[in-house]
Amino acid sequence: MGGSGLPETRSICPYCGVGCGVLLRPDGQGGLDVRGDPDHPANFGRLCSKGSALGETVGLEHRLLAPQVDGRQVDWDTALRLVAERFSDTIARHGPDSVAFYVSGQLLTEDYYVANKLMKGFIGSANIDTNSRLCMASSVAGHKRAFGTDTVPGTYEDIDEADLVVLVGSNLAWCHPVLYQRLLAARKARGTRIVVIDPRRTASCDGADMHLALQPGSDVALFNALLARINGAGAVDQDFIAHTQGLEPALEAAWADDPSVTGLSDSEIAAFCDLWMATERVVTIYSQGVNQSTSGTDKVNAILNCHLATGRIGKPGRGPLSVTGQPNAMGGREVGGLANMLACHLDLENPDHRGAVRDFWNAPHVPHASGLKAVDLFRAVGDGRIKALWIIHTNPAVSMPEADAVRDAIAGCDFTVVSDITAQTDTARLADVILPASAWGEKDGTVTNTDRTISRQRRILPVPGQARPDWDILAEVGRRMGYLRAFDYDTPAGIFREYAALSGIAGQFGRDFDISGLGDLSDSAYDALEPQRWPVTSKRKGGRFFADGGFFHADGRGRIVPVTWCPPVARTEPRFPFRFNTGRIRDQWHTMTRTALSPRLSAHLAEPFLELHPADAARLKIGGADLVHVESPTGRAILRARITDAVQPGQVFAPMHWTGETAPSGRIDALIAAMTDPVSGQPESKASVVTVSRF
Ligand code: SF4
Predict the structure, then answer these.
(1) How far does residue 54's CA lie from ligand 1's centre (Å)?
(2) Which of 53, 262, 456, 658 would staple 214 via disulfide (CB 3.0–4.6 Å)?
(3) CATH architecture of 578-694
(4) Which residues contact 296 (CB under 8 A, 6 or more apart)?
(5) Which atom belonging to ligand 1 lies closest to the Cα atom of 48?
(6) What's the pLDDT tens digit per position in 228-262?
(7) From the alpha carbon of 16, which atom of ligand 1 is closest?
(8) Which atom belonging to ligand 1 lies closest to the Cα atom of 13?
(9) Could you tell me the distance, in angstroms and rounded to a whole number, from the CA of residue 181 to the centre of ligand 1?
(10) Residue nearest to atom 2 of ligand 1 (CA)
């Protein structure tokens, strides 16, 4: 019960991958009272500024309340008939690979499952990708190379129990604030040391023992230096290394790398390596500075290599931890929401896995090969190969690299559908059909957070107008395309039971993701489901992975992967002399569709800006708060100058939140060239090139 005596509803914050539990109660004025759930294992009652302002963002001021076709309000039957007919007709005339879905980590697991089943099982294409491709696809690829599956080895408790936490490319203090609060609590309780590895001095450096301001993209060289020193000091764990293979070639690659490319001094590198090797309980937390890179997968493996070589993995206070930017990025990974994955961590390329999923779904066929990843998907929209596109809860006309080209591609697509809670986004304005979806607070389902904890999101608000849950919209389109039985769902609980049963098949194949222990939940048991970490089977519940080996490659051994430093693909040149870094600010989230509704969140940093070093500002005669013109080979923006030595000379930084709706000159993703990691397909967002001049 809350203070008023009204019952509170347990749910989950919809913003980031920390997955904090919240207790919600209507405030009687259309909003919600929100407090942290003291019993949720992610946050134990803590919330950050965004989570605590949730109640201010649930009004109906900008809501889409009815379907629209070509800007006219229509009924659901008209809209859904049109969507099903246009997709069916396009597939009949041009084949299944002529259509695509681009979805989002905002979807609940049940929504994601239905979207993936419709595309991969029944349309027969793998052209479903998600904005998680922009967030952590390199971690997925690195995990699969090292472990054989996309497994997060550790848990949040490892942060509480570590003696050294290394933050790599992660401004944890602003982007995952509750985990940072846990880290500061651990520091107070046990003296945990903190090292930040980031070209920029961020808020996370305030409480750090060491900040290594390395050159952008040089992380592989730094962790290769660490691996070489581990070996040189005789600190390889010989017992654990027997569970792996690849140390020798990885060492040869490490020896060949030149640590000076990091721009760090020998003494800085030595101090970091000595601290790391002297501390048994080390957790390495990494995020977008690692993943959003043309060498993102190699960076991930360079980090994993050091943990594998020393056996610092899967044990209390030890291991790598990739932190994700979206509330259900992990759920999307688990249902196979990426174009190169099958449901339940089964492999699209494995004929036995494909056959098992096809039989389970009673589907006509499951595609043999990966579909188009986000950057390639929008290129295919632009050149006409994709002729029907369904975008769900994401705003690629703002958030994709080369956003102007993506915007033009969507505008030129034969048929575009957008599902969202508002029609007032840059992307929705380009759509032929806009479908009103239920918002957070109005829908039931599950999400998985960064440490594999599955939690229930629960409905507390009435569904406004004609809005419907995403799983319901997708299933209705599936039925109208002729797949009546496969999409005969009544409730998210029914979808979850099917999904859990499918995961049991994955378990039989020896995969990590198995929640078959939840496969026979009644509706009421589903409603009451407590947060729990997977796997959940009759034999096992939660826990860590790999403390004693047990990797998921066919031979059971982990892989230490040889990696070599490569500079960012984009090269500075006289015309574009600055390295352009992008990221988030503390109080905004993604393209601001929700957080901008809160006056107190918008007051933190109210307009788009560019951080510029004082020496560069003086040379360019730019003063504090001047407007500056920023131009790249792909776009331009006008931003407010913030002169600070938090960035290094020759480097600039801008936040990624502002849109054509909120600040037309501040759409900074238009500046970013769409260059991708060759393994993961994740685009680089940290090392583009630009020129800067006073406006
Ligand atoms: Fe929400 Fe993330 Fe903040 Fe937790 S840390 S309250 S999940 S935004």
Answers:
(1) 10
(2) 262
(3) Beta Barrel (2.40)
(4) 137, 138, 141, 142, 290, 677, 680, 682, 684
(5) 3
(6) 999 999 999 999 999 999 999 999 999 999 999 99
(7) 2
(8) 1
(9) 11
(10) 16
> Ligand 1, closest atom to CA 36?
6
CA of 429 to the centre of ligand 1 (A): 29
Rounded (5°) CA angle 513-468-397: 75
Centre of ligand 1 to C-alpha 449, Å, is 11
Q: What are the sequence ranges of the domains in the chain?
A: 9-57, 68-135+328-533, 137-323, 578-694
Global confidence as pTM: 0.96
Q: Atom 3 (ligand 1): residue with closest C-alpha?
A: 48
65: Cβ contacts below 8 Å, ≥ 6 apart: 436, 464, 465, 466, 467
State the amino acid at position 143 in one-letter form.
H
**Per-residue burial over 263-280, b = 16 or more CB atoms within 10 Å of its CB, e = otherwise:** bbeeebbebbbebbbebe
The answer to whether residues 87 and 78 touch, using CB atoms and an 8 Å cutoff, is no
The yes-or-no verdict on residue 605 having pLDDT over 80 is no
CA of 393 to the centre of ligand 1 (A): 19
| Cα-to-centroid distance, 16 and ligand 1 (Å) | 5
Q: What does the pLDDT look like over 331-376, one tens digit per residue?
A: 888 998 899 889 999 999 999 999 999 999 999 989 999 999 999 9
Domains 68-135+328-533 and 578-694 in one fold: no
Residues contacting ligand 1 via CB (< 6 Å):
13, 15-16, 18-20, 43, 47-48, 50-51, 176-178
Atom of ligand 1 nearest to the CA of 19: 7
Helix H, strand E, coil C: the string for 211-279 is EECCCCCCHHHHHHHHHHHHHHCCCCCHHHHCCEECHHHHHHHHHHCCHHHHCCCHHHHHHHHHHHHHC
Region 64-76: what's the mean pLDDT?
A: 97
CATH fold of 9-57: N-terminal domain of TfIIb (2.20.25)
> How many angstroms from the chain centroid is the CA of residue 86?
31
pLDDT at 657 over 90: no
User: What pLDDT, on the 0 to 100 scale, is given for residue 5?
Assistant: 64
Summarised one tens digit per residue, pLDDT across range 91-126 is 999 999 999 999 998 899 999 999 999 999 999 999
Q: Does pLDDT of 2 surpass 70?
A: no
The fraction of the chain above a pLDDT of 90, given in percent, is 85
Query: What integer pLDDT is reported at residue 1 of this predicted model?
Result: 47
Mean pLDDT of 549-565: 97
Q: Which atom of ligand 1 is nearest to the CA of 51?
A: 6
Q: Measured in angstroms, how far is the CA atom of residue 38 from the centroid of ligand 1?
A: 14
179 Cα to the center of ligand 1, angstroms: 9
Fold assignment, 68-135+328-533: Rossmann fold (3.40.50)
- pLDDT at site 593: 67
CATH architecture under which domain 137-323 falls: 3-Layer(aba) Sandwich (3.40)
**327 band by pLDDT with thresholds 50, 70 and 90:** confident
- Residue with CA closest to ligand 1 atom 6: 51
Task: State whether residue 302 is helix, strand or coil.
Answer: helix
Burial of 447 (0-12, 13-18, 19+ CB in 10 A): buried
Query: What is the pLDDT of the chain when averaged over all its residues?
Result: 94
Ligand 1 centroid from CA 12, angstroms: 9
- Classify residue 129 by its DSSP letter: E
pLDDT digits (tens, 9 = 90+) for 273-282: 999 999 999 9
Pocket test for ligand 1, best of 11, 12, 18 (most atoms within 8 A of CB): 18
